[in-house]
Amino acid sequence: MTAAIRRESVQDLEQFRIEARQWLQDNCPESQRQPITPEEQFYGGRNARFPSEDARLWFERMRDRGWICPEWPAEYGGGGLSPQHAKIIKEEMKAIRARTPLYSIGIWMLGPALLEFGSEEQKQQHIPAIINAEVRWCQGYSEPGAGSDLASLQCRAEDQGDHFLVNGSKIWTTGADKSDWIFCLVRTNPDVKKQEGISFLLIDMADPGVSTTPIELISGESEFCQTFFDNVKVPKENLVGGLNQGWSVAKALLVHERKLMSELGSDSPREVLAPNAAAREYLEMVDGKVADAQLRMDLVDYDMEMHAIGLTHFRTFEEKIAGERSAAPLVMKYVGTEAEKTKSELLLAILGSQGLGWEGEGFSTAELDTLRLWAMSKAMTIAGGSSEVQLNVIAKNVLQLPQS
Amino acid sequence: MALVLNEEQRFLQQSAREFLGDNAPVASLRALRDSRDPLGYSSQLWQQMAELGWASIILPEEYGGLDFGFTGLGLVMEEAGRTLTASPLFASAVVGASALLLGGSETHKQNLLSQVAAGELTLALALEESPHHRPTRIATSATADGDGFLLNGCKTFVVDGHSADQLLVVARSSGDSNGADGLSLFLVPRDAAGVSIQRTIMADSRNAANITLEQVRVSAEDLVGELDHGWQVLEPVLDRGRIALSAEMLGIALETFDRTVEYLKEREQFGVLIGSFQALQHRAAHMQTQLELSRSVVLQALSAVDDTPEQVPLMASLAKARLNQLVKLVTNEAVQMHGGIGVTDDLEIGFFLKRARVAMQIFGDTGFHKDRYATLCGY
Ligand SMILES: Cc1cc2nc3c(=O)[nH]c(=O)nc-3n(C[C@H](O)[C@H](O)[C@H](O)COP(=O)(O)OP(=O)(O)OC[C@H]3O[C@@H](n4cnc5c(N)ncnc54)[C@H](O)[C@@H]3O)c2cc1C
Ligand SMILES: Cc1cc2nc3c(=O)[nH]c(=O)nc-3n(C[C@H](O)[C@H](O)[C@H](O)COP(=O)(O)OP(=O)(O)OC[C@H]3O[C@@H](n4cnc5c(N)ncnc54)[C@H](O)[C@@H]3O)c2cc1C
């Protein structure tokens, strides 16, 4: 799927870094180097508008350069670069605090799965549209009765000769009301072991019979929806990976989802406050030390954890380049999202009553965001496979403990 | 790449594992303990280890060393953690050798380092004066006396103190009783007049001693590093020691954990293997996550010694604090998950439990290193 993994010469990489740095310096507008607010995130799609002229410029330059998805094959609009090159772009973007030009479930989840399992026609139809921000995708996995036990899903697709007829509902579909297409797990055979009767379907949400209802969250946002399918006709060519083969696609995609979630802590899109910076601003300092001994220790625990997590991300990357396998990637979702929750609790504690403002006067945007992010952080250890499910996976696949 | 091993390093680790597994398993430590061995380690084993080059891994070739890098030494420490091998590896080949390398005069290096490399000379750092690691709170005095100095004071928890040939004594030559300025390091032969050594029997059955210095005469040539500026040598030496100990603790945690997971797959209760109980599975899986993070930290800390010295203080405190916490968690869980036999002396898990507690205290407990890490981060 991605460009072949090669051992790149250090010299080539250094040269590339210099060029990338220069290009970013010349092409990333000043306004796109500021912390981003949720409203300013560009997700693309049929009805999307750029939050600003600079955001448009920045996206288009990155797209034309092939750096929206640097590792994807050039024939579908990707950059055709190695993981090392992609990492350099990421690092150099981070160094100037460049915003992510395009937020996209298509990039994070669907694209890698399509590149691995999709037909040539599917790749040509969907991959460039993802990179060019023409189509916004959402994920239709969970159902009211199928959460952690995803394979027990009931939303069904009946074979009607030239198309599938889809009926049922999905829940917790992030961004469904703003999306153009949805990738869905559907039941195509109810009479076999549950994992063996599942297929992976791409569904155009403009098709008759698809509807969504937003759900309000404890953060006050309504990021996700329940999505209903009422006699929706889906063309046969939208099946990915073969009839009843959907579970393999689903699992491969989950790997990407978990990797993404494990990295949220290290490059959170809307990070406004870092705990140690906030500490200096909000807490009493005596002789250069945080005076509150408990908070100081909480802070150091968090910083050490993030330091260790960062090094472990780095190790998994090096292992990938070296063609080695270890258990490290399997633990990252758990440690990353647990740390994200810890961080939010820590920030709330550091901000004191200034961290408790829900809206309006008396609080800065950063303070208000801190509380909303704190509420959102609770979802991180549930979505994409809960912490308990992650521990089950480690117990089974890494430690190979007996299953009851 | 710092976080994956190269082929030579992998080979070194593999051969260390085989050698120690064959020649110095935990049973050897038990035998040393039960026979109340006067030396506390096998000198024959130490000779073999030296022949394998382990006493000289970090030393430059000009002093008879292998110049293989600190990561190599860390890998041997990790394996020695798995077998709980008692030897002068830490006190001599890590701490002593580093001190001479970083602070020793050319004469020290020429005369002593090659002996350390050959395993013929053993060293011990006489630092602590209280039950907690306080490396700048030094009351032991070095007062000028003619062209030399007189040392007076009491040292405690001196690792290998009763077996080492020479002591590296940290003394105050000027300044307040608590401060990095005014410290000096001296080499003192164990049999020098005025040195009295009392062996202490510790929980881990490894070597330690209390040492009293009474009017001990040393000459200016015995000074390691500059007078009053011993901290410039001592701090990096301590950091290397902390990082090497972290590697040993990683080995302790890995071995204890492996044995426990094996037990979960053997022991039946309620008609099933106890490893099928989710209450135990989740705790084991959580430990696995902590082991993965700790491995990255240790590898980075080891390579920092050779490649990025400016990172060493922060990495040393990160590694020591995290590995302290890790071995505490893993050894406690190991005992618990073994049930009744977990608290028996027959089972070797108890040896890991006890060594872990001693290693946690050497060169700084968890609180010490969290405080230092926070201070280095500017809060
Ligand atoms: C912010 C957010 C965004 C999401 N976005 C999407 C999306 O876009 N598309 C989509 O399809 N889904 C999405 N989800 C759904 C998510 O995948 C599910 O919430 C998740 O799989 C958990 O399922 P559940 O909510 O039904 O909880 P349940 O599975 O009912 O879990 C309840 C509790 O039981 C525990 N539990 C369950 N099984 C076990 C077990 N075997 N062992 C031990 N403990 C167990 C869980 O850990 C949890 O604590 C999102 C969720 C959140 C929070
Ligand atoms: C100091 C001491 C004194 C004792 N004195 C006596 C005495 O005088 N008389 C006497 O008869 N006995 C005595 N015992 C034995 C004691 O009652 C048993 O050790 C205890 O019942 C545990 O059994 P076990 O050792 O076989 O461990 P196991 O039952 O094998 O347990 C091993 C591990 O598995 C866990 N485990 C087991 N089942 C489950 C489960 N269903 N779910 C989750 N986890 C599980 C345990 O918590 C433990 O961590 C003594 C034990 C000790 C340590």
UniProtKB/TrEMBL annotation, chain B:
Positions of the Acyl-CoA oxidase/dehydrogenase middle domain: 137-201
Has UniProt tagged this entry with the keyword Oxidoreductase?
yes
Cofactor needs: FAD
Q: Which domain of life is it from?
A: Bacteria
Span of domain Acyl-CoA dehydrogenase/oxidase N-terminal: 6-120
Residue span, Acyl-CoA dehydrogenase/oxidase C-terminal domain = 228-370
Extract one GO molecular function annotation from the record: flavin adenine dinucleotide binding
Q: Which UniProt keywords apply?
A: FAD, Flavoprotein, Oxidoreductase
Locate the transmembrane regions by residue number: none
| InterPro entries per UniProt | Acyl-CoA_Oxase/DH_mid-dom, Acyl-CoA_Oxase/DH_mid-dom_sf, AcylCo_DH-like_C, AcylCo_DH/oxidase_C, AcylCoA_DH/ox_N, AcylCoA_DH/ox_N_sf, AcylCoA_DH/oxidase_NM_dom_sf
Q: What family name appears in the similarity comment?
A: Belongs to the acyl-CoA dehydrogenase family.
Provide the protein name: Acyl-CoA dehydrogenase
